[in-house]
Amino acid sequence: MRGILSDRMGAALLMAPLLLFLVLAYAWPFLGVVKWSVTLPTPGLGQYGALATDPLVQSVFIRTLRIALIVTLVSVAAAYAITVVWVRGSPVQRVVAEFCILVPFWISVLTRAFGWVALLSNRGLINTWLQSIGFITEPLALVRNEFGVIVGMTHFLIPFAVFPLASAMRSLDDRVLLAARGLGSSRMRTFWSVFVPMTRSGIIGSALIVFVFSLGFFVTPAILGGGRSVMIAELIYLRIFQSPDWGLGAAISVVLVLFVGALMALLFRYVRPKQLV
Amino acid sequence: MPTYRPGPVSLILAVLVALFLLLPLLAVIPVSLTPSRMLAMPTGELSLRHYRALIEDPRWIDAILLSIRIGIVSSAISTVLALCFSLGVWMFQPRFTAALVGFVLLPMVVPPVVSAITLYFLLTSISGFSSFFGYDTWLGVAMAHSVMTVPFATVLILVSLSQLDRRIDLAARGLGASVWERATRIIMPNIKFGIVTAALLSFVLSWEEIGVTLFITSVNAITLPRLMWMGLRDNIDPAIAALSVILIIITVLVLAVRSVVARQRGGH
User: What is the ipTM of this complex?
Assistant: First the structure.
């Protein structure tokens, strides 16, 4: 009896500091944000009503969904191509692929966004080069628009898309592929009708991770969109700091959390957590 | 060892993706060497003036020192909290473990902008009582960074605990070791690699944190990413290119050393 009691005490003593910290510094202030959404500027659900009718907010929501969808498709496809080589290539190919995945992964989002500014802006590498060979006379608008945002976000998210794909490809049984080849299936056909279907769980996991991440993206769209291609996260920032309308900013945050929560629930329903790691 | 190798089409596609991934990192190198005061490609002569600006301009030095201080404090807080919590989970396996771990991981899965507005609410509320701890103070930023990094530290420590053999702990327990002795003399020495990794990752995440920092600082607590952000939004300052080159070189070196060390460990 005494043993059980002290076990409980021990567990409570060890786990309490972090739980208390997060309740006070995260859960409680989040409830405060929810309170803002229903009390500012006037009590009631007015801000949520405004969300549903405000054409600006709606256009930002639609743009965010559109960008997130495109970024998800491109990132997962690109990640698939490099993951195949990372997991199944020769030893040298693997080292090179790993380097190309991990170096960008560890470099900060600001440096990477800045790299794209250096490449895509009017006086950047690509426009300077195209003008010097006389291919164009006026610089192309590659940044401060939706194109720049999509390129930057895809670049940021490819490494995140790689990890679930890699674990799916690693657990795949080689003998199935060899059997398909042995039975006379071409490389292409083996890839499309055996390899890809067998990594389905990785594809779903990686697509959901990228999609969820892109919904709340802030830094890359703010820099590469240049204020012209505003996504949800930047809208929240603008509502809090530029046109102080804390109620609306808070209401958008609450909707975003609910939406992401629903997506995560879907993820855990269709993909067992083990298949993701 | 997989025997099914990627074919030529796969290789070509992978090379294209690899180029896409590396291109923006390479593009900052020529920009950092431009003699111009604005963002431009160098035409003809090269200059190191933007590297010199990093050393001579006190704003950059101050920001770097502040980021290091915040990184160390927040990494210490999040590593200690994550370690205690994970030890509790592993040693006692209490009921509702899954729910409690899920709660701890929330700041990792909630969209960063929502965490940012949440922490903004927290720190502006604290500012009402205290002037040195709250909105736009370095202690406030360190605490906010701990909230954001503690899920990552917890995951890393839980993973290294899951690879530990429970029988060592059972033996210590059977021989009469107290909870404190089991934790400090039996378990922690066996997961020290995981603890160090958790502390390092927390530091790196705090060092480059910008999404939350933007919401909770204005003029006093200017961390390095915050200063870079200011230089990126207004008139693009090529000193950022010089700084980026340095950060990229450090990253590449650290990864190279790590992979050499990992290879030697695997070789034994």
Answer: 0.89
